[in-house]
Automatic annotation (TrEMBL), chains A, B:
It holds the Pfam family Aminotran_5. This is alanine--glyoxylate transaminase. Belongs to the class-V pyridoxal-phosphate-dependent aminotransferase family. It is an enzyme of class 2 (transferase). Substrate binds at residue 352. The lineage of its organism: Eukaryota, Fungi, Dikarya, Basidiomycota, Agaricomycotina. One of its GO terms (cellular component) is peroxisome. PROSITE patterns: AA_TRANSFER_CLASS_5. Its cofactor is pyridoxal 5'-phosphate. Keywords: Aminotransferase, Pyridoxal phosphate, Transferase. One of its GO terms (molecular function) is alanine-glyoxylate transaminase activity.
Length: 385, 385
């Protein structure tokens, strides 16, 4: 079945889910397999090991791979690390930052939300002031807020946080940045990285991907109150993850076997094949700049206020004058699926294009040119109509 | 790609995950598709509608299809329906009943666990006495406890509960019974049915399947305290499920798109193709009796104390004298994967065989004969060694 070819379909270039390689889709069609079988155990173990590589988390990173979504990763961070009354800061660069605040409040956190202007980032001054005004248990940063296409300067923020509030746990929402933006878990001193499979990793959705530091797990162990959730309690999952990594099966809840087979194929390509991880990030940046430059030539603007805070795995693109969301169905008719605006204040003024994974790393597909051609066609038609 | 054939593999006859039909696996390899696309919306809607049919829940049933596992369905029931101090009863027929009690206690329930002798069921007297001794918010029944192969008399228990404690919400853990045992949600007056995709539904794991009654949703609305979880808060999911059913997309967290395509194919086969739903249940019973009769001829016993409380989708089989778990790798070497014992008190004395889904409904596969032949071979070899 190695000659499996997926069905013809519209090109999926939203900021996730993204296009999936044939080999990954075929792995997602692995025949029924026991979650405790000798065949499956090393597959799960491989995924755990390779995830550490992708995040440069080989010193202290403990992966958690659990059936669920990216959002469930927030929930896990909140439920496992927050106790009622804990102070938390949410660096808010759009829809996803704000929602993460709701999540932490569910677990009794007193959340200070530092909200950047739309398309901008939180200033160093505002961040430091918030850190200094209180003892902060946890700070969350959305690495790429998919609603604005803003890329947070995560390394820089982490350094500031270490300097001004070294005990604060740092959680990076990397749902839309893993494998498309560089994340150095150990070097930056991150405590939690939250992601999912359907974006830069290039796997179908349905698997929550979390990396936790030794310090995060110590915080969990030192809780005064029990973890207020059952399914996402890391105390239940830690022995499972360790067992599979060590080569034996252990049961708490059934893992999504086929998705883990699919993730293994995707992670092998990312960690062992060309481009290398470093080249992958450089390539995403190069392609992103090309996409943005070409769209600018068509009169498009961008939601991020400057290029240096714009994501490399997606673009939040302002419609040129005279053009509206009416172009989205026209793009779909040309077999190019982009996403509409999501940030409530500006939703009707922009659209979103994903450029991640195989769309970026496999130039022979011609995905990028197809997107640019389609946008050019519909924008030109609209303007001349 | 309609001629897709899955890779050759060992026959998977554990009590879930089970064998998956080629057409379902192919749907699980659907190309990357937007979770809010016009292509996907009706697929999700179809699944919601067809699930009601499978559970005879067309009067008041509200399905929730959320990325996760069967265990996450327990968590959803606990988090959404229990408030600290609520009384709950767990009808405990094995490992899964006992674990459900842990789950409810996480949310502050005062749990009375009525534990049946291993292989037996809770008596009417014990059930009624527990119901009468307190005001009970929620009672949970594991329909088929996979650890013992015991089938709870769910209709009978429901009737008793309605008679003696009509306000008590009834939750049926149907992870290992949906689509292999009859469940009449409306007629029996169930409030919650919890399942997953990888057992009788014949889909890969990774999707939590829950049905909630109007009464359960009222209980949720009348809570005095907020739902103490973020991701599995039904208040967040209800508008999503309703939107997809009505034909529009709405976002809270990304659904597992490919698994929902796969579920659609599986549910269509169950609700629209031969055998009919009624015939499907009868067929599972017939095949179950055949398997049990044939295994008995080899000297096997059974964990359930009598045939009328034995599941029809699986068998918990006691090793014949002189035979032990050492036969499991020998069966695997014959390409037949069964499961070992799970109940801690008797784990080494029995094994478990699943007979669900295509293994039962498609006789042309020859799965059942293959299992029986393999067991006969290894038991005979072992006894004569």
């Amino acid at each position: 079945m190695s000659n499996f070819k997926q069905a013809p379909h519209k090109l999926l270039v939203i900021p996730g889910p993204i296009e999936v390689h044939d080999s990954v889709l075929l792995a997602n069609a692995t025949p029924g397999t026991s979650h405790v079988s000798p065949a499956f155990v090393p597959v799960f173990g491989d995924c755990i090991r390779m995830l550490r590589k992708v995040l440069y988390a080989e010193k202290t990173g403990q992966p958690f791979l659990i059936a669920g979504s990216g959002t469930m990763g927030w929930d896990a961070a909140g439920a496992n690390l927050i106790e009622a009354g804990d102070n938390a800061i949410v660096v808010d660069h759009g829809y996803f930052g704000a929602a993460f605040a709701d999540c932490l409040e569910t677990y009794g956190a007193k959340v200070t939300k530092i909200t950047a202007p739309v398309g901008g980032i939180v200033s160093d001054e505002d961040l430091v002031a918030a850190l200094k005004s209180q003892k902060v248990k946890l700070i969350t940063i959305t690495h790429v807020d998919t609603s604005t296409g803003v890329l947070a300067p995560a390394a820089h923020y982490s350094k500031l946080i270490k300097e001004h509030s070294p005990d604060t746990l740092i959680a990076l929402d990397a749902v839309c940045s893993v494998a498309s933006e560089e994340i150095r878990f150990d070097d930056w001193g991150l405590d939690i990285v939250i992601s999912a499979t359907q974006k830069g990793l290039g796997v179908p959705p349905g698997l929550s991907v979390v990396m936790a530091s030794a310090r995060a797990l110590e915080t969990l162990q030192n809780r005064k109150t029990p973890v207020p959730s059952y399914y996402i309690n890391w105390n239940r999952w830690l022995p499972i993850m360790r067992a599979y990594e060590e080569g034996s099966a252990k049961y708490f809840a059934t893992p999504p076997v086929q998705l883990i087979y699919a993730l293994q194929v995707a992670l092998k390509a990312i960690t062992e094949e060309s481009p290398s991880l470093e080249e992958r990030f450089a390539l995403h940046k190069k392609v992103s700049n090309h996409v943005k430059d070409e769209l600018a030539k068509l009169g498009c603007g961008f939601v991020p206020l400057s290029r240096d805070i714009a994501a490399n795995g997606m673009s939040a693109v302002k419609y040129p004058e005279g053009v509206s969301a009416a172009i989205l169905p026209k793009l779909a008719a040309l077999d190019v699926v982009v996403a509409g605006g999501l940030h409530k204040d500006i939703a009707s003024t922009y659209f979103r294009v994903g450029h991640m994974g195989v769309t970026v790393t496999d130039a022979s597909r011609g995905d990028i040119q197809k997107v640019l051609d389609a946008v050019k066609t519909v924008v030109t038609e609209t303007k001349s109509a």
